[in-house]
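Researcher: Please translate sequence to structure tokens.
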Amino acid sequence: KDIHIEMNKLVMYLGGKDNIINSEYNLSRFKVTLKDVSLVDKEAIQKLGAKGIVEIDNQLKIILGPTSKALKKYIDDLK
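Model: Translation complete:
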């Protein structure tokens, strides 16, 4: 799998880069703060391989495994 294609899809499923306010990672967890959580396609994110998604207010905590760090860098590079 091409990781950039997967990450691009993930950003799209998060509502696009303009919907992402902030992102962080901690080991296997990727935490993202969003403008509008209703734009997120959680089902599609899980199909990409997320082990779980927790929604708290306008934040999502997504258990992604080792790709969390790479995803954070990818999103930072988009901004």
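Researcher: Any highlights?
Model: The mean pLDDT is 92.
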